Amino acid sequence: MAQRILKLVQGEELRRSKSDKLIANYIERNLAEIPFETARSIATRLELSPMTVGRYLRRMGFDGLDQLKHELRRGSSNPAWQVKGPVDRFREDIREGKLLAGLIQQQIDNLGRIYELTAAPEWQQTIDALVSASEVYVAAYQNVRGIAQYFASQLSYTRPRVQFVDGLNGTYSELLDGSVEGRVLFLHDVRRFAAKARPLAMEARRMGVKVVLLTDEFCPWGPEVSDICLVVPGSHGPLWDGSATIVAVMDLMLSNIIVLLGDEVGERVDLLTRLQNTFGDFES
User: Fold this and answer.
1) pLDDT score at 236
2) Closest to 135 in 3D by CA, of 167, 175, 172, 170
3) Other CB atoms closer than 10 Å to residue 145's CB: what's the count?
4) Does 254 reside within a domain?
5) Pair (161, 214) in one structural domain
6) Per DSSP, what are the bridge partners of residue 187?
7) Domain count, the chain
8) Does one domain contain both 39 and 129?
9) What UniProt keywords apply to this chain's record, in alphabetical order (predicted)?
């Protein structure tokens, strides 16, 4: 399915005008993202009208973007963390600085959307949950596992009883045994979603654990399985699904928590620094 669409937009018939070329290049370079776009969002990105995008789609043989999405979803699992198409086509853009400039601008735009997130009620609810929890358990999978481990490690400098859980014991019993009240599960998952994430969130809530889910705009089940659902912009990069936006969100959370806890954080960092010096973890 995807190959047929690529062949269409690469043909001369659909690349006659300037707007044709803009839309064709966008579809070609962002094919994996099209199922999550609208005609208006594409038009906005390309500074065209939605009607122009609609006419182009009809020339492709589709009665609107929904029909194109349906065909793409039938033909692809749309995995995340993939190289999106032949890399050769980006080499000229790299040499001219266009590709990197575009990626930087995307990060700037996403940071603007993150600022809006920090003003949402869910943001303060998340901060309050992470500060007041008796214990915080952090979980994530596959490619985003390392990012979540980083967050758990940094959070442990601000407060005690923070643990990353990998589920290798097959039970998550350290989180789900019900022995301690006031636990919080901070679950991080983004497209392509891990098979264990949703059942873990559901079981945690069943056991009385508060679930905070940090996910992206592609998640269809987040609010259903979490007490607090924080949604960040998904990756729309032309080449690779990066993690800069998620890391920025986590760093802002940590900064917010440090300010809120004040001197408590300083005392904890002093304690950890003394222990690090005792066991010789760092050069003097």
Assistant:
1) 55
2) 175
3) 15
4) yes
5) yes
6) 139, 213
7) 2
8) no
9) DNA-binding, Plasmid
HSE, CB side, 13 Å, CA atoms: give it for residue 198: 12
Percent of the chain with pLDDT over 70: 85
pLDDT at 77: 43
Are 116 and 249 contained in the same domain?
yes
Q: What is the mean pLDDT of the chain?
A: 86
Residues forming beta bridges with residue 231, ordered by sequence position: 215
Bridge partners of 135, per DSSP, are: 183
pLDDT in tens, 103-134: 777 777 777 778 888 989 999 999 999 999 99
Say which CATH number the domain at 267 has: 3.40.50.10490
Q: Are both 150 and 215 inside the same structural domain?
A: yes
Asked if the structure places residue 93 within a domain, the reply is no
Query: Are 64 and 135 part of one and the same domain?
Result: no
What is the predicted pLDDT for the residue at 78?
Answer: 44
Least confident segment among 104-108, 157-161, 171-175, 235-239 = 235-239
- Per-residue model confidence (pLDDT) at position 109: 75
Phi and psi at 119, nearest 5°, equal -95, -5
Query: Last residue of a domain, which of 28, 54, 77?
Result: 77
Same domain, 242 and 148: yes
- Which range has the worst mean pLDDT, 2-6, 35-39, 93-97, 222-226? 93-97
* Residue numbers of the domain that contains 45: 2-77
Q: H or E segment at 186?
A: strand 183-188
- Which residues, listed in sequence order, are joined to residue 228 by a DSSP beta bridge? 212
- Which DSSP helix (H) or strand (E) runs through 116? helix 98-118
Could you tell me if 159 and 34 lie in one domain? no
Nearest to 216, CA basis, from 121, 124, 119, 114: 114
